[in-house]
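Retro notes (design track)

What went well: tokenization of the new backbones is finally stable.
What didn't: we kept losing track of which sequence belonged to which structure.
Fix going forward: every design gets posted as structure first, then sequence, in one message. First example under the new rule, 147 residues:
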């Protein structure tokens, strides 16, 4: 699985003009299931993200996790994280999981984030979503369950 994590002051996602998920301080997690990904990889990635120390401590250093700060997570499916741009000018997405499997793993991953004790909101898989955020820092981290 691939994830792009952004530390945010707030974030929301709209579908057809209606807010379907929103959070205050915490993490916006854009997530993509790749072909061959498993629940075990989703478990590992969710646990790693929950403990990722990217929030400021009392001395201003990135030394606290979203769990430490009682922050929330907005988990949004983003198949374009599978983009292959090595050839030509149009990205290919053939390495992304098939839609049914991608949705299953997305829902599973969001559930694993929530199971860590993090208040979790989600987007809507496969929908045309409008994501708004205020990136705090800015802090943006790329993660891959394979790395």
């Amino acid at each position: 699985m691939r994830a792009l994590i952004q530390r945010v002051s707030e974030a929301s996602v709209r579908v057809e003009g209606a807010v379907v998920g929103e959070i205050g301080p915490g993490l916006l997690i854009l997530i993509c299931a790749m072909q061959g990904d498993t629940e075990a990889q989703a478990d590992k990635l969710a646990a790693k993200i929950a403990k990722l120390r990217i929030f400021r401590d009392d001395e201003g250093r990135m030394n606290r996790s979203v769990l430490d700060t009682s922050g929330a997570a907005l988990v949004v499916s983003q198949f374009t994280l599978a983009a292959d741009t090595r050839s030509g000018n149009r990205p290919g997405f053939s390495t992304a999981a098939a839609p049914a499997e991608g949705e299953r793993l997305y829902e599973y991953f969001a559930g694993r984030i929530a199971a860590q004790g993090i208040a979790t909101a989600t987007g809507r898989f496969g929908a045309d979503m409008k994501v708004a955020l205020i990136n705090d820092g800015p802090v943006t981290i790329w993660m891959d369950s394979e790395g």
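Added context from the reviewer: The mean pLDDT is 96.
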